[in-house]
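We both want to read discrete structure tokens more fluently, so let's practise on a single case. Once you have written the record down, we can walk along the chain together.
***
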Amino acid sequence: MREREGTSKHDKRSNRNININIGKSGRVTMDDDDVVLRIPSSGIAPPEASHTPLVSALKASAAQDDAATFHFPGHNRGRAAPSSLTQLIGIRPFLHDLPELPELDNLFAPEGPILDAQLHAAKLFGSSETWFLVGGTTCGIQTAIMATCSPGDFLILPRNSHMSAISAMVLSGALPKYIIPDYDSSWDITGGITPSQVERAIKELEKVGRKAAAVFVTSPTYHGICSNLSEISRLCHSYKIPLIVDEAHGAHLGFHPLLPASALQQGADLAVQSTHKVLCSLTQSSMLHISGSLVDRERICWCLQTLQSTSPSYLLLASLDAARAQISENPETIFSKALELAVEVTDLIKEIPGISVLERQRFSSFPAIDPLRLTIGVWQLGLSGYEADEILYRDYGVVSELVDTRSMTFAINLGTCREHTLRLVSGIKDLSAAYIPTQGAEEERVENNSSHPPFVDSKMWLSPREAFFARKKRVSIKDSIGEICGELICPYPPGIPVMIPGEIVTQRALDYLLHVKMEGAVISGASDPLLSSMIVCNV
């Protein structure tokens, strides 16, 4: 487990080298450069693995099958469940789809099984407190930003942050101080941000008499690129600025020596994790972790009460408890098989002609790329990522996690099997054999690619909140250049906005959107899905 026994909160926040016990004899060593996780293999599952307080409470409550129930939901423990859905998933999910009964605790004032489950999660992940989320990491990011930023405060964040960070600024009234992330034009992929970029942003605000209320970092990115959170957290804390980490894709980090360290292990004050992504809870369930004393926990609670549903799904909550227990069974080895498969499939695909594999050397300013995130480039075959993805799905039944203009990304997890990784390799080999590129086709694709991200020259005219509430009008797409964008427009996934409300519409951003749409991307947030017109601010 990643329990930090014998370590005070001050030690967790310290800039000095520290040793933190894990269980009885494990060790996490934090130094100036890296965090190394060393966990002994005892072969004995800790008691936390078999203790699932919320799962047990839900099971016991649902077992009262002779109860005369006059409460919500309307399907009444499955008695009136829609037949079309029971034919798909059976009756049992409805039996456990229960409301806030006394024995099941209250998410907003937990004192029973929910509190117990959250305490077990905090112990495993190394936080001082953990909250269960039923609104996904989106809810957690909004909470983290609202809890640290008041109207008019500045938030330092990468321009490729998830759309939830933008909506959080609308809700909080925070003002963005954007950092343009690293960008690789060959891959058309943005990376993370560096400590020097964060320091520059802090000092630029200081020059105009302002201080950042928080720093927000996405690590790892959708492609698995990890920022140097150890250095960034030390920098932030030297200015007494809290560090928020969108760790949606990194709930598994720190649980194996071959995996990068987690955000909390590197000093983050708030970390939001999509437990349902690489770990095994149900979709839409996440966790918010806090460490240190820079963030007011009461404000976190107030924000969660504002943003979370007052009718949370106990199936989602119980799945978080179960996912935590699953990791607790054998935290030092649970990812060993997945990592072995990842290494094998990566090595095999590297040998295929015309195929590139994204490696850390492409983003050498960053300490690591998650080995369980496999991104392959297909531009040398004269194909876009969307075209290659369609072929793999149609002909081989291979389903990717993320598709980009020049690549596809595959998530390897606890459920990945060797049969499927070999099918992926076979499909990529056949793709390579069928689409041997001509030099001209490859050069043409490279020429169509800019050396900068599409938002590099974006300028903010209105804050996201001002733009959200401003009067709007619709203009043709050709007349939108130079106008103030009134929509949040992005290819999804990954959900990184190309245009943000309040920014001036640029030719570069518009050309990129039209290009990726033509290549096959799904455009989210645009009121006109054909992109023949756009909503702009009428100011």
